[in-house]
Amino acid sequence: MRPRKTILCVDDNEQVLSVRKFLLETRGYRVLAMRTAAEALEYLQVAMQGSVDLLMSEVILSQMDGNELVRRAKQLHPCLPALLVSGTVSNFDRAVAADAFLPKGACTPAEMLDRIRILVARKRGPKKQVQSVMGAPAQMAVAS
Q1: Which secondary structure element, helix H or strand E, spans residue 20, and what is its range?
Q2: pLDDT at 25 over 90
Q3: What's the pTM value of the predicted model, to 2 decimals?
């Protein structure tokens, strides 16, 4: 069985966070639900590199906006993909630090899950590169 991918999900609206957590967990993801950007950053400071597969956050948070959260998170974990979500499309221009942006209400849960799947796969990298890296020492041993 494949290990579950971990998504750090941040939203200060408890209902939205609960629904999102349920949606993702029923699709096999492990969800770390946090209500503040500060809480998420505290977690990321002690988390091992690669232990979180995606940061998903609301753009508008109470103390620190999602864009700033993404910037700081990428300082701690440079390869961490980030997805920002907002209730208004006009916040798209505020989501410049993220790898992707989704407007709430304008995309279906299936579209959101598809975007998440793509971002998590991008973090993992293409399978062909992994195989060629693993095959390199064997080729070098044969050549010796």
Answers
A1: helix 14-25
A2: yes
A3: 0.80
